[in-house]
Amino acid sequence: MADAPDHLSKADFSALSELRYQMRRFERFSEAAARAEGITPLQYLMLLHIKGYAGRDWATVGELAERLQAQQHGVVALVTRCEQAGLVERRASMEDRRRVEVHLLPPGEAILRKLAAVHRAELRAQRGFTVPNLS
Q1: Cα four-point dihedral sign 82, 52, 126, 113
Q2: How far lies 14's CA from each of 11, 59, 133, in Å?
Q3: Measured distance CA(4)–CA(20) in Å, rounded
Q4: What is the rounded CA–CA span in Å between residue 14 and residue 41?
Q5: What angle do CA 51, 57, 61 make, to 5 degrees?
Q6: What span, in angstroms and rounded, lies between the C-alpha atoms of 121 and 119?
Q7: Across all residues in the chain, what is the average pLDDT?
Q8: Segments making up each domain of the chain, as ranges
Q9: Which of 84, 105, 91 is nearest to 60 (CA)?
């Protein structure tokens, strides 16, 4: 952990409290929005991380595990469930046949686009979402 100030003021604690409140409020919104589309919050996050992976339109299970901060075997199970739901597919890499790429399928892309638009609108509505500056 980085060097922490020896003394945090009441304002510092208030700012941290407000940030955590805003984060949780947005997270609850996100969870409800995903469920309304018939997927779990974790499935939504996985779809988002696949589409949002820098430089390409797919991700490996290991990369998804890092992004989701989850164990690799748990992500394998998540990919399997998403594959069974027709949201993603696994493909052997053309560059390295040992590597498996996880790609979005059109139904997964459609759900993701709808949820991303809803999330963007919610973030705009929550204009008070700011990161505190600790002294």
Answers
A1: negative
A2: 5, 38, 11
A3: 18
A4: 28
A5: 80
A6: 5
A7: 90
A8: 16-125
A9: 91
Q: Token pair for residue 124?
A: 């705009």
Distance CA 3, CA 94 (A): 45
Beta strand ranges found along the chain (DSSP E): 58-60, 88-92, 100-104
Q: Is 13 helix (H, G, I), strand (E, B) or coil?
A: helix
State whether residue 91 is helix, strand or coil.
Answer: strand
Spell 33-42 as b/e; 16+ CB within 10 A means b. bbeeeebbeb
The C-alpha atoms of residue 42 and residue 48 are separated, in whole angstroms, by 10
Instruction: Check residue 134 and give its pLDDT.
Output: 45
Token pair of 75 as six digits: 């992500």
Cα(51)–Cα(21) distance, integer angstroms: 28
Cβ-contact 10, 18 below 8 angstroms: no
pLDDT at 3 over 60: no
Fold observed for domain 16-125: Arc Repressor Mutant, subunit A (1.10.10)
Q: Which residue has the higher pLDDT, 5 or 76?
A: 76
What lies within 8 Å, CB to CB, of 45 at 6+ separation is 67, 68
